[in-house]
Design a protein that fits this description.
81 residues; single chain; 48% helix; mainly alpha; 3 helices
């Protein structure tokens, strides 16, 4: 995690979401999705990969997405009628 803690169990993941994320940000969609995915994985045998992805999105919720430009420029086509 950004502060150096390690998440080992699903209980640690929920505790991290509850304690380290400010209360005013608990209603943000990435945080809600992470909480739901971790809870589903813990209680109903849900996907651990979805729980991991949800946690990563919640942790990096303020980062801007990195846009990778195309390597080749798009081809220009001429419309013939």
């Amino acid at each position: 995690m950004p502060d150096g803690t390690k998440i080992v169990t699903l209980r640690d993941a929920i505790a991290y979401l509850a304690k380290s994320i400010p209360a005013r940000e608990h209603k943000l969609p990435p945080v809600q999705a992470a909480a739901l995915c971790v809870t589903q994985a813990a209680e109903n045998g849900g996907s651990m990969m979805l729980a991991r992805v949800g946690m990563m999105q919640a942790i990096n919720r303020h980062e801007k997405p990195i846009h990778q430009p195309r390597r080749k420029p798009a081809k220009k086509f001429k419309v013939v009628r």
